[in-house]
From TrEMBL:
InterPro entries: 5'-Nucleotdase_C (IPR008334), 5'-Nucleotdase_C_sf (IPR036907), 5'-Nucleotdase_CS (IPR006146), 5_nucleotidase/apyrase (IPR006179), Calcineurin-like_PHP (IPR004843), Metallo-depent_PP-like (IPR029052). Belongs to the 5'-nucleotidase family. SUPFAM superfamilies: 5'-nucleotidase (syn. UDP-sugar hydrolase), C-terminal domain (SSF55816), Metallo-dependent phosphatases (SSF56300). This is 2,3-cyclic-nucleotide 2-phosphodiesterase.
Length: 518
């Protein structure tokens, strides 16, 4: 018997080193260098007849301060990420949605050192050159023909700035797989699907776990596309490993916390006779020294850059000590981010999110490290014209973030399972509003006014919002590209830096424009 071991990384988000960058000495149990050691160990421990394949499943080049440094400095080695993945001899790669965050030219420069095929069967258009090599690849190892089909979430145009994906079309991963998998079954002994997307339904019951938008089509792939021997997923940052509906599936979390392993046992005719899936934790692994040598100089430059001062804060503190309280009662940090957005967008209404519970806001002496750890997304800004009724609908979506258990307010489980979505709760400035949590979801906005006057359903208002939300991301269909009246094609971190340049000393202000009744 031959074992085919399929290893995968996904959603590493530029976390090469085992650090969250909160301080120069911050240490964490994740990172690509640790994942590389785990991959090496599997290869070294494999039996002589075993076949080991490795797939990079997307969202690799964006997300960490390390990645932000490379994107923002022309003299930084943009191809460093693919130097690393090529040095690890990956057999194939797939693009994630965040690969497009800095545009196609930047993406091409990042992929310049790549020595493995980049697969994207559902990415179409004339701009594919230098972005996608092929829909699939077929490898022959030990006499076994192995097909790898690459797919990415088709929902990218809902979030990404149009200029970043110009000339590209993203079609359904499910319908694309329906087309390709039967053909690959005729060409290969084993068919692997590597999909930068997640599961839209409970893998055991099939019950939907989210609104069926096409963002995640993994459950459809494993249940309605016969012939898939192994399914690698990602995008949702979940930790999943198991055999579901007869198909072994992995999803290895984020930041390199784990490596996915699917083990297929093949008989003498190269047919799969048994299969299993597991996640290999990287927590105890030692970072791979040979790869670390490629990145030492860049990491030192990153750490020096992060400690550069960018401004000062007086008045109310912008340090976040209690994330839940900040969402429930507002916070000067959120007010400040909204003020930056209103200033850049020339509006007097804005909204923002406290993206996750690691956000600590800004200290008295603000550094780049504090800023990037608080606003880690390269979101640009748009101004949209919304009616009063659409604004109320958006607020109702945010109001559904909370639930009451007796007198205790908690986060609605729908924002936690199956994927943590704290970033889908927004806090507004420039309007006054009240949520009454005793009311049913959808009827919780009980007061809503602008400049002291009740907002009317047909009243039109200009709102500054990041482009992810502005395109409807996070299940906010009342926002849409068709409603955009202005685009500020500068990411929010750059806008905040510019704000500090013009206001070297910022006065923190309490956020008092909304309340949540429980």
């Amino acid at each position: 018997m031959t074992h085919l071991k399929i290893l995968s990384t996904s959603d590493v988000h530029g976390y090469v080193y085992p650090t969250g960058y909160s301080t120069p000495n911050d240490k964490r149990d994740f990172g690509f260098l640790k994942a590389a050691t785990v991959i090496d160990t599997v290869r070294q421990e494999a039996d002589p007849d075993d076949i080991v394949l490795t797939i990079e499943n997307g969202d690799w080049i964006q997300g960490s301060p390390f990645a932000a440094y490379i994107a923002k400095h022309d003299d930084a080695p943009r191809d460093l990420f693919t130097q690393l993945s090529s040095a690890m001899a990956y057999d194939a790669g797939v693009l994630g949605n965040h690969e497009f965050n800095y545009g196609l030219s930047y993406l091409r420069s990042c992929e310049a050192a790549r020595q493995y095929p980049l697969l994207g069967a559902n990415i179409q258009g004339g701009q594919r050159a230098g972005i996608v090599d092929a829909p699939y690849t077929i490898l022959e190892r030990g006499g076994v023909k192995i097909a790898i089909l690459g797919l990415t979430t088709a929902y990218i145009p809902m979030w990404e700035a149009a200029g970043h994906i110009e000339g590209l079309t993203f079609v359904s991963a499910f319908t694309t797989a329906q087309h390709w998998v039967p053909r690959l079954r005729e060409l290969a002994d084993v068919v692997i699907v590597a999909y930068h997307g997640g599961l839209e339904a409970d893998p055991l019951t099939g019950d939907p776990t989210e609104r069926l938008t096409g963002e995640n089509e993994g459950y459809q792939l494993m249940t309605a596309v016969p012939g898939i021997d192994a399914l690698i997923t990602g995008h949702q940052h979940r930790e999943i490993a198991g055999v579901y509906q007869g198909v072994p599936v992995t999803q290895p979390g984020e930041k390199g916390v784990a490596v996915g392993l699917i083990d297929l046992e093949l008989d003498a005719h190269h047919q799969v006779v048994t299969h299993r899936a597991e996640l290999l934790s990287t927590a105890q692994a030692t970072p791979k020294r040979a790869l670390q040598a490629l990145t030492t100089a860049t990491e030192a430059a990153v750490q020096a850059w992060l400690d550069q001062p960018i401004g000062q804060v007086t008045g109310a503190s912008l340090v976040v000590t209690d994330s839940f309280d900040a969402r429930l009662h507002g916070h000067p940090y959120l007010q400040f981010v909204n003020e930056v957005a209103m200033d850049a967008g020339q509006t007097d209404i804005a909204l923002t999110s406290l993206f996750n519970d690691d956000v600590r806001g800004l200290g008295t002496h603000v550094t780049m490290r504090q800023l990037l750890n608080s606003y880690g997304y390269p979101n640009t800004l748009v101004v949209e014209r919304l009616t009063g009724s659409a604004l109320k609908a958006a607020l109702e979506r945010s109001a559904s973030f909370f639930t009451c258990e007796g007198s205790t307010v908690k986060v609605n489980p729908a924002f936690i399972y199956p994927k943590l979505q704290l970033y889908n709760y927004d806090v507004y400035s420039g309007i006054d509003y009240t949520f009454d949590l005793h009311q049913p979801i959808g009827q919780r906005v009980v007061d809503l006014s602008y400049h002291g006057q009740p907002i009317q359903p047909d009243q039109e208002l200009l709102i500054a919002v990041n482009q992810y939300r502005g395109n409807g991301g996070g299940d906010y269909p009342m926002f849409a590209a068709s409603k955009i009246v202005r685009e500020i094609n500068v990411d929010m971190v750059a806008l905040i830096l510019d704000y500090f340049e013009h206001h070297p000393v910022v006065t923190g202000k309490p956020q008092t424009n909304f309340q949540v009744r429980a």
